[in-house]
Predict the 3D structure of the following.
Amino acid sequence: MKKKRKKTKAKTIIVTVMLMIVTVICVLWAGLTVCGINVIDKAKDLLNLKPSAESVEFDKNKVTLGVGQVSDLDIILHPSDTKSTYTLSSSDKSVININDNKAEAVSDGECTVKVKTDNNLTDYCDVRVIPAPTKISVPKNLKVSLNEDYTFTPNAKDEYPESFFSFSSSDENVVKVEKSGKLTANNTGDCVVTVTSYNGLSEKCNVSVFREPTSLSFIDNDIIVPQDGTFLLEPQFNEGEGTSSITYTTTDKKIAKVSKTGVVTGVTAGHAVITCTLPNKVSAKCNVTVENKFARIRSNLDPSKPMVALTFDDGPNGNSTLSILKTLKQYNARATFFVVGSQVTSYPEVLKTTYDYGNEIGNHSWDHKYADSIGYNEQKEEVLKNDKAINDVLGVYPTVFRCPGGISGKYYEKCRMPLIYWSIDTLDWETKNAKSTFNAIKKVFKKGETLDGDVVLMHDIQNSTPDAVKDICKYLSKKGYQMVTISEMAYYKGYKLEGGKAYYEFYDKNTTE
């Protein structure tokens, strides 16, 4: 009986030990699996049971890399759990150098990269190396609507492959960007998309996501553009709606061209219609009138001699303006007269005489309201109403604009005419004294300075100004000065006048740059 009990006890111990071993193995197996270790694959590795590669290939057999870029060229082995290894080699190390089984683009050119497995399977990839990007082109600000398709093209002109750039969003709840640059707008809001090139260039784009537009309009449905002049169209949306994906078309490119960004350029005199269309087919139209380039420039002026632009505001007036015109004609001088519309209707013949004498006519608003006391639409009315008054008398539109009081406004800064200010204020409106007005000119020379390129401000409605102009013209003429219009000064000093842009003086670019 004792021997039998001993055998039973031994068997119990053996079974217990075996169960403990199985338990330990199961625990280890489970632990390794939780840690991400495939026990079967590990066993195959230890026992060298994995199969050899049956094939090897490049994911793409034609690849473009940029100088300085490193790529593994995406090698694919079949089956994926093969035990085989591979090596890369280059047909031209001056173009592609292989280091740690990665392709390093060294210089411009083309070569072939070969992959070879340890069981002698091969494939080939044609690699073209191009210069690295030198800049990233993305909009600084972008408006997109929900459900709108938009793709960033950081350097579309050079057609760099998408692998050259990476994209990140500061808030993927608002915007997410794929590797291809395709943007997905998830919710309304604002975020920043950063575009980075493989060689370390980086640019940021402020993205605003709006609701899909249900309507579209322009602040200005009817615009006047001078020949060779420009005007920026600004589409308006309902509150909370918007997009930057806008297509512009024109009914006649020979009259008015329009860029992808909505800049209208006058080509020849006539009428055209610009249509703005959104991706969802919502559209708006703008009527464009292109006027002939009517700024008159004398061809007998000498650019090597000093020039000064005399300008007169707030007219036309009766006797004072006509007296100034007589003096200007005596000295073969021309000036620019910034006229007020309410005065134009009172003295149309004086305006016509001013223009017929070869002077330049500028717009100085309808009734001299300061921009800081009126809104956008009233600023627009001040300009357009005076434009019409001048055109009714002369048959041409004014070429330049001066803000009343020198105070600019939102409409003025986008109008078709350049904004002309001044560099010399004679204060004739304040002193109302001819001698003081003349002294404002003389003191410039007393300080050892000149008036070459300067714009002088005077007012032809002041009774004292005509006498001052007599002294000024005589004085400047003796000093060899040519008294010219704003457009003449800009032309001979190398400036191209742009609508909405401010100009205070016209110093010779050839000597100031």
